[in-house]
Every structure is written in structure tokens, then in C-alpha cells.
Amino acid sequence: MPSPLLPELEELHRLIELGGPHLSTQVMCKVQMGSNQFDVLSVCMGSKDPAAPAIGFFGGVHGLERIGAEVVLAFLGSLVHRLKWDSLLHALLGEVRLVFMPLVNPGGLWQGTRANPHGVDLMRNAPVEAREDVPFLIGGQRLSATLPWYRGPEGAPMQEESYALCQVVEQAILPRPFSLTIDCHSGFGVQDRIWFPFAHTTEPLPHLAELHALHRIFDQANAHHRYEFEPQSVHYLTHGDLWDHLYLLGRERHPDHVFLPLTLEMGSWIWVKKNPRQLFTRHGIFNPLIAHRQQRVLRRHMALLDFMARAVASHSRWQPNEQERDLHHRQALARWYPELPKLKRSGHIKPK
Known about the structure:
By secondary structure, this protein is an alpha/beta fold. Helix content is about 40%, strand content about 20%.
């Protein structure tokens, strides 16, 4: 049952009820918080054809960044309410599988912490070690759960929330010939950013050409957007990144498939700059606390998520063929990796 202590989970249950037979829901795990128990849910809709492309929308991985969960919930809500009348939406759903996991870390949302109730940062919890130097603490640490960016005990299984996210991706997304995910976060900076792997190395990932082609059609379709599309490694490297882990797993299990994991990093300094008093609250650093700013954020990112769903459904129309891949790869290197040594620029590096 939904808990009144966690309005985002209550809203998710409401949307599931409204969606009725159009939605399929699965409880991936349960998080116990004292006398309260929170479900970690996945919700799917759209094509059941195993060969259809899939897109996943994830939020609430960091409990302090509530806006990420709210963006995913707002998009799911838009789709659910349009099911009654939008024939174009039904046509889209006939072509693509949509997967939602809006509240990956309900315990963190309930506590108002970045980490889960065990003090583990879920985005530092995967079994991936950085190949190059990472910044102290922020790159992932095993000193103490009382410090931020704690990875969890060495050799221990992944946290149940991390494992739940991985199970959803492994079961519902990676087996599809073409898939994409977008994980919604907020962070420092005055610009919204769309990050793609890798986080554990400065080397480009093998599907760099596909990412460049996606970036190109996004630019063409959204001429006045304010997103910066870039690899995460431009800013910093980390251990234990979940999306690096899942991308490498996809390459190992489904080498002929295309999987493009993206992260939306909403620039939270924009909100702090307009309302400096937010600096004095933990939530204020990562979330727009004034109602009209939150509404503006939700409106702005709806267009991004809708575009991504349409791009996945239509991937065969823009995905580069073998003749085009080399050009896209070279243009991507020039754009995103201008300082990379030639040895690492081949694009044929196999994951280890």
C-alpha cells in the first residue's frame, strides 16, 4: 500500500491504478524503514514484442535529489492521462516498450539523504573499478558509510536497490536489439547536462557513433535547447558506476545489440542562484523549492523524455549504417575527445 510518508510513492501507486491494464507492475524489492516498508517498483507499458526497442526512465537513485523522481513521475503521468484520447501515443506504444523505475531509492527519499538507508551511494555500488585516477571521496570511497560517496563493503553483494535496478535493465531492456535509458538526477552547475558513459575511464565507448547520431537529431529537432551533451569522464571518473556496469554487461551478453545509457544532470545552481536562501537547506541545493520553478523544470524536461521515446521507436531511421559509422565516430572524437591520445581513439576497445 502507498505510504503517506512518501508522496512520490503514493503518486506512483495512483498512476498505476489509473493506467489499469495498460501497465504491468512488478515489486523488485522492499525497503524497511523502522515500521515503514517501501516498495521499489518497476512499471512497463507498450509493445510486448521481444524484438521491439525499449527505453527506460529512472529516478530517485539519490534520495536527496527528489526532482529526478518527480520528472519521471510527471512523464509517466502525462502518458497515463493521454491513454484515453491520444491515438498517436497508442501508435507509439505499438512500436516501443517503455520501462519506468521512478523511485529506485525510496529509503533515501524518506530520509532526505543521497545514499540509501545503509549509507551506500547506489551510483558507486556496482562491481566496476576505475582504470584511471578518481578524485578523492567523490570518485567512490570505502573509508566509512558516514562519509558521502560510500561504495559499500569490499566484496559484498550490491545493495538491494542497486540490484533491483540492474535486474530491471537486464530483464526488460538489454535483451532488446536497440535500447536506451535515461536516469534523472540533479547536481551542481548552471546548465542541464546529458551524460553518457564511461565514468570509469576516459576511453570512448564502442557505441560513440550512435550517440553522436542521436545528439545530431536532438539538435536538429530542438534548435533552442540548453542541454550540454557530453561524456561523464569530461568532469570526473568514479568507481562503481551502475550504468558503466550495465553497459559492459550488455556488451558481454548481447554483443550485437545497441544499448545507450544516458544520465540527465539538471543544473541545480540555476535554482540556488535565483533563490540563495536554498543554500541553507539540504533539499534546496538539489531541488527547486519554489513552486513555479519546479513546474517550469517539469515542463522543460517533458519534451526531452518524449523526444527520447520517439527516437528509440524510430531508431532505424537515424541509427548510422556501417558506411556512416566511421564519419560519426570521427566527428564524435573531435567534439568530445579532442585531447585523447590516438591509441585510445580507435573505438574498437573491448570492455574488460
